[in-house]
Amino acid sequence: MTERTSRPANAPYAKSALPRTLQLRHERERWFASVLVLLLTGLLLAFGALEPLENRLSEARARLLDRSPTGHVAIVEVDAKSIHAINSWPWSRGYHAQLIQRLGAAGASMIAFDVDFSAKSDPSGDAALGRALDKVQPVILPIFQQRSSALSDEMVKSRPANPFRSAWVGGVNIIPGQDGIVRDFPAATVINGQVQPAMAALLAENSDLGDRTFVPDWSINVQKIPRFSYIDVIEGRVPARAIAGKRVIVGATAIELGDRYTIPRFGTVPGVVIQALATESLLQHRALKRSGILPTLTGLMVIALLIASGLRVRYGMAAAAATVGSLIVVPLLVPARIPLSVDTAPLLFAAGGGFLLRAIVETRHRMRVTAIHDRETGLPNALALESALQGGLGEILTVASILRFETIRSAIGTAALAELMIAASGRIEHFTAATIYRVAPDTLAWVGAPRMNANDLGQQLNELFVEPILTATGQIDVQWTVGMADTGHGPAAIEEGMAAIAVARTEGRTSSWFTGARSSALRDLSMMGELRRGIDDGQLFVVYQPKLDLKTGDITHAEALVRWNHPTEGMIPPDRFLPLAEETGVVRDVTRFVLGQVLGDVARHPSLSLHVSVNVSAADVGDSGFAPAVIGMVSDSGVDPARLTLEITESAIIRSRDTALATLESLRKHGFQLSIDDYGTGQSTLTYVKTLPVGELKIDKTFVTSLCDSHADRLMVRSTIELAHALGLTVVAEGVEDWDTVKLLSELQCDFAQGFVIGQGVKIGEFRSLAASAARKAA
After folding, report:
1. What is the pLDDT of residue 525?
2. DSSP assignment, residue 242?
3. What is the pLDDT of residue 9?
4. Are 589 and 622 in contact (CB under 8 A)?
């Protein structure tokens, strides 16, 4: 027979194996995350909150693309050098006439002035400029409009004066955005109801855009556009070949002349540079258009569908990476080929926020899935079965428990035991065609009647396991005891099935039906379910029993003890529920609860300098995952591990020796103190103890309570203390009930005493006063 292969505990669970309610909840949360992202993105779009991000992204893309200018546009600068050389301002227009003649003679294809010629100047200069305009063509002079004053809405049109009517006119209005940055450029300006083409459109001989506004291609590097000083041109220091064939724009660049604007990528530049950049954009047919709202909405819908999709985590991560990658690469590739600026800020926000929300949803779902699956085997656990049984199914619940389970676990260890349970569940699943649940360390369960008489199921199940199960440690023979119950009782059917197992074993049978009698065994099993819920509901709490330092009289050490305040039964004694917890494996949850409470208390009360001992069970030290979990908890809490002592019984080590020793050694290396509890009740000797990675032993109370009356006990305790000290071990005597015993233990050089006479267990808030009182009595 082919065994079911083992899978890691962190392997993904099959969707079909999850409760329908969990699947629906997961689906609802995915859709909620999707809708939430759409709403948030829509609100940000509506209020323009994403526009600053869009601008930054557009500027970053422009830097990356870095397109070269055509070389057909040049700038003649009215710069500081020229103003100093001519030594006056405003200049006589005779200088402009000289410049036009020089540029015309050098072969400039077009000349444009970003200089105001709307007012008359000295007659000789105006006359010279007029003659130059008649002789050299085409020359473009500026036309623009502006407010008559800062407080007025009246617009004043400025155009070249009458003597210069032979020149072309082009609009030079530059309009910054609300943030003071120029991002758009008008291809034409409406002045007094007339459409006036922009100077850049005339220079580029491009009227494709009509009177629309466009986005100049900021990736064109304006720093590479040729620039010549005004004075150098009119004095003949610029060679004609540098001017020939170029569209020349003349404008102010000197700081004292103003006319400066802030643009993306290049910061603050003169207005003439913006005119040159707009001309280059039109020449290269790189007047950009923004992609607009329709592609954005389409992209948002695609992202929303991805967020809400049922993709597995690894595929979802790949989809998220591909989406974000596309939103980075595509907006670079598109404008590199066509004049289109792709809006990506809303899509990046939606993708980033959406996939973060999806990650949170998946994490929450994973936590819920993990909670209903057994950590060691990945099989659905008791919580999953309880969920499946809600409302009753009108079928049979079968619960099967392995005989001699503790013997098997001690022999093969935790890892091989997980292999065994997975392989066993595979055989049963093949036999029953049902989902198999691991409801306890030794117990599997499933819902649905087998294809045979239910009374014969125990025999049939054991016949199914005539062939041993093969594990890493070898072949294991497995036999089962089966309990059956009606699922009409809902989750209680699990406890009833386990109670039926107890009855079958008592009566020496392989199977039994639950008859309805709530036996003590059923109550015990019910108690374990209530204990699990009690941990989550805050019914359990920790008290601290002080230990008296017999050398100093101080109390800075204590043992953490768990208490259970049941909502209906009140305080349940630990000796009633802890043995059952040990037997069923629930003690692991109890240990982690106690550790968590102790770490929190120690961290919150640093002034106590408290050193706490915590009992650790056989199930804990036999679990290879226990040490990493404890180390992680202590690391997260910030508590020094040297302030914790983990107490382990001799029997716990013997039960799973190899795993236990590995666990203890790992804990010791990370700074934890280790102690052998109940020393003297087992078969071990100090020679055996010295081979263990422990630094303390606790003498069992059976030898301490009669210490003053029994010479034999006194000799045993004395020799134990002396030999333990010789081995470098600290000794704690527990069960101390009177001060005479305290005095005798002190004389015997015992290190610590613990018992009712020192103090009973109290909550952390009361520990300080109890410790002080006990110390005074000891003194």
Report:
1. 62
2. G
3. 39
4. no
Closest CA to 195 of 170, 225, 159: 170
Cα–Cα distance, 302 to 300 (Å, whole number)? 5
480 vs 497: CA distance, rounded Å: 13
- How distant, in Å, are the alpha carbons of 17, 178, 356 from that of 309? 19, 40, 14
- Identify whether the C-beta of residue 764 lies closer than 8 Å to the C-beta of residue 563: no
User: Residue 138, preceding bond cis, omega within 30 degrees?
Assistant: yes
**Cα gap 628→669, rounded to integer Å:** 12
Residue 153: predicted pLDDT: 59
Q: Are 531 and 574 in contact (CB under 8 A)?
A: no
Q: What is the pLDDT of residue 487?
A: 80
Residue 487 near residue 494, CB atoms below 8 Å: no
Q: What was the pLDDT predicted at 155?
A: 58
| Helical (H) or strand (E) element with 479 | none
Query: In the chain, which stretches have pLDDT less than 50?
Result: 1-16, 451, 518
Structure tokens at 657: 């020796």
- The SS3 call for residue 9 is coil
Query: What is the DSSP pairing of strand 540-549 with strand 752-754?
Result: antiparallel
Phi and psi dihedrals of 490, rounded to 5?
Answer: 70, -145
Q: pLDDT tens-digit profile of 599-616?
A: 999 988 887 888 999 999
Integer Cα distance of 750 and 748 in angstroms: 6
- Predicted local confidence at residue 103, as pLDDT: 95
CB-count burial class (<10 Å; 0-12, 13-18, 19+) for 557: buried
pLDDT of the residue at 516: 65
Distance of alpha carbon 744 from alpha carbon 748, whole angstroms = 6
Which residue bears the tokens 């540079």? 273
Work out the burial of residue 9: count CB atoms within 10 Å of its CB; fewer than 13 is exposed, 13-18 middle, 19 or more buried.
middle
Strands (E), 107-176: 110-114, 139-147, 155-158, 168-171
Give the gyration radius of the chain's Cα atoms. 44
**Where do runs of H (alpha helix) occur along 338-404?**
345-371, 382-389
Tell me how far the alpha carbon of residue 603 is from its chain's centroid.
26
Q: With a threshold of 0.70, does the pTM exceed it?
A: no
- Residue 153's region, left for phi above 0, alpha for psi from -120 to 50, else beta, is alpha
**Pair 602, 640: CB distance under 8 Å:** no
Q: What's the full length of the chain, in residues? A: 779
